[in-house]
């Protein structure tokens, strides 16, 4: 485990102020203070791992350790994604995820490299490691996406153990929610260490991007999606170009937040397209967030959407609609920092 961690607040965007506020567990780290522009973590010539939310720090560590041990980029992003998938205290990804409104935990995941390799599953059930099933789709089928019953059957055929993902805690939260059955997405629920059982609906994800020292890229994205969603709902996360996109010679992007708002604009593909056209990762994330805000107007009031981007030179971008989106960056030395993304709106 990496011991050097810091969170630097880098609030900015339209009229917001810059600030540097160390997180509780963080030790401040010289040389990474926000300078009113893009995040200053850069991989230089080394490996970089980037992931959504503060819980991405542990995932980054696992991914980086895998690379250090000689694993491939796909091994690394898979290993990283498996950390929150197995975490019983994380109700947004994998085991113990909050269920759909009928009480079924359903998982969405995608994995992608920069050589056209893509595998994804959507509405997968009874399987902890959706990201590993997605990788099997990529490596052992002629397809890119399996859904629902077919995805679950494929997981069994591939030897993934059948396991109920609904924990007593998640079930309790669902029963509380049933009392009102009110659907109201809540921004940044991932950052709450204590959740109100049955409170407003959560939406959560981990998206990871990794770059090797020679500038190759891969990414992964896995989630239990929007809590108490309609049965059969699939978010942005497993959809290539929405929740994740990686392109050789350019870079990659991943998204978090209310998936419908990302899917509508093929958000991650759009971030990468901006980078291909010459934007920095930061400029590209900002362009897409602004596009969503312009397109949707009042419809996205109170809604969180965030993007991370990493280019093949190791430059990082992060931007979101609302304050509170955090992300984790591991640089070439293996040091992990947790940072706060700048946002378009103040609240
Ligand atoms: C979804 N985008 O299913 C995912 C959830 C998420 O932060 O990212 N929440 O809509």
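Q: What amino acid sequence fits the structure above?
A:
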């Amino acid at each position: 485990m990496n011991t050097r961690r810091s969170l630097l607040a880098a609030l900015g965007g339209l009229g917001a102020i810059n600030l540097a506020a160390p997180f509780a567990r963080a030790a401040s780290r010289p040389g990474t203070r926000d300078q009113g522009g893009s995040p200053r973590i850069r991989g230089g010539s080394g490996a970089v791992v980037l992931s959504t939310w503060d819980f991405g720090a542990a995932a980054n560590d696992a991914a980086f350790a895998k690379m250090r041990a000689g694993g491939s980029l796909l091994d690394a992003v898979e290993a990283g994604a498996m950390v929150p998938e197995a975490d019983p205290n994380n109700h947004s990804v994998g085991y113990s995820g909050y269920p759909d409104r009928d009480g079924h935990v359903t998982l969405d995941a995608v994995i992608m490299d920069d050589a056209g390799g893509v595998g994804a599953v959507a509405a997968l059930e009874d399987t902890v490691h959706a990201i590993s099933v997605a990788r099997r789709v990529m490596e052992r089928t002629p397809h890119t996406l399996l859904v629902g019953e077919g995805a679950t059957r494929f997981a069994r055929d591939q030897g993934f153990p059948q396991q109920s993902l609904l924990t007593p805690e998640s079930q309790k939260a669902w029963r509380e929610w049933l009392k009102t059955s009110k659907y109201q997405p809540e921004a940044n629920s991932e950052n709450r260490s204590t959740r109100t059982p049955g409170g407003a609906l959560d939406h959560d994800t981990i998206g990871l991007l990794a770059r090797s020292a020679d500038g190759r890229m891969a990414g992964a994205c896995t989630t239990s999606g929007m809590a108490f969603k309609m049965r059969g709902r699939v978010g942005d996360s497993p959809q290539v170009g929405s929740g994740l996109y990686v392109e050789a010679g350019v870079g990659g992007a991943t998204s978090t937040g209310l998936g419908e708002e990302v899917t509508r604009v093929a958000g991650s593909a759009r971030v990468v397209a901006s980078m291909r056209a010459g934007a920095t990762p930061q400029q590209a994330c900002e362009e897409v967030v602004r596009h969503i805000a312009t397109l949707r107007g009042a419809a996205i009031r109170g809604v969180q959407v965030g993007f991370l981007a990493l280019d093949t030179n190791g430059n990082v971008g992060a931007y979101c609609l609302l304050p509170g989106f955090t992300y984790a960056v591991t640089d070439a030395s293996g040091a992990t920092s947790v940072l706060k993304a700048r946002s378009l709106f103040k609240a």
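Q: And what stands out in the fold?
A: The chain has one domain: 4-343.
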